[in-house]
Amino acid sequence: MEHKHDVVIIGSGLGGLECGLMLAKEGWDVCLLEQDAFFGGCFRSFLRKGRHIDTGIHFVGSMGEGQILRQYFKYFGLMDSLSVVALDNDFDTICFPRGEEYRHVHGYEGFIGTLSEQFPSEREGLVRYCRKIKEIGETISVDVHRSGKLSSGGLGNLGTQAWAFICDCVSDPLLRQVLAGNNPLYGGRKDASNLYHHAMITHSNIEGCYRFAGGTQKVADAMAGKIASYGGCLHSRQQAIRLVASGDKVDYVETRQGERFRARYYISDLHPAATFNMMEGSTVVKKAYKSRLNALPNTYGLFSVYLIMKPGTVPYLNKNYYLYAQDDVWDTVMGKDLRPKAMMLSMQPKEEGARFSDVATLMSPVDSQLFSPWASEESGKRSAEYYALKEEIAARMVSAMEARFPGMASRVEHVCSASPLTYHSYTGTPQGTAYGLLKDYSRVLASLIPARTKLENLLLTGQNLNVHGALGVTLTAAATCSELLGTEYLAKKIGRA
Fold first, then answer.
1. From the centroid of its chain, how far is CA 250?
2. CA angle 74, 221, 352 (to 5 degrees)
3. Model's pTM, two decimal places?
């Protein structure tokens, strides 16, 4: 069977859904293909023991009134259908192994003031640090969009090392670690992470952190519903396996189910390597280019432990905790010794105003190679050794949590977990990498993937192109769609929504 549309979008992660919604809202005939039964990628939720558990997105920044992510959601027409919960003023707590705790708080004045109380001699450096973070973050503000731009600059900071910038601002070794303590949000590496990513994510969180009450699947479902309301079609269980091209244009997408989808334009929300690995027939995409994409380094994977709590026993903590097993916050990746070096504890509100938490999530960076022996096995049917390894890692992470929060483990009713292979089955990213391609400040051009490709009618979107996280993917989706709609037109529509 053949289908014809204006645009076919491969993958229904946040980037794919947002591209579909923007184009459908602007009158395009949109078709979205998803290999899984549900839409959403890392916005997916799943059901265990009667609880909805979020897969990968546990909070978002810049969601307050007048802030840029909220402005996009207003443009999408989603705010009336979602319940968002503002995190506490001290939204992040950075915890070190001897029990010390340091807080990141909302608002720059509060952020500087809180850390200055603990590091009084560093106030001037904190002011300088925040001035630069804010400067970079505001390059994508609502006012910038209203002027007809998606960004007013800032990308030059891709070539600046985040750690070097932090060290240049403040001299106290501990404060340097505190400022870098959120680096697991972007797959941080001391030797590679750039200032642009650090600043965008830090600024977004200082502006205002929020959670989606009732689970992130509601966001994905609301977006899918909006696409359908504009006449778009969404196909689940349709895995794209071939992108067939002639010369410099894609002719059609073929799915594993044997159907062909033709369009004027194609947008891939997949990892760039995965996109071009299924390309056939093109004379402009050379083997050397595919090899280069496959050779680019990716970020680490994440191991997530989902704790289903006994009802009414664990007070809901409306903030995030970063638990470090050593003083170096960049030393995060769990290796063969299975020692959790860094974990983020985040609780999930069942509803707005909830007093207790049904679900708590522990996430730890992990070397994806630990799970490579089972990569070729079918999800849900892997060898017993794989599940034994998952159980051991989960137990070690729960034990590390218990050391910081005594008594919490006894209130756990059920434990389930997700390895990088689980993420791979959801997102299709190589080795289940959590944040896609590594963005190395020292190799900016090597890892900078534009939305436009060498094929006239193929565009890319998703976290591999620009910044990670909900905000980064949203901005990238707009950049992708601006190639078809025009930057000034789209930016003003969003900014004036």
1. 28
2. 70
3. 0.95
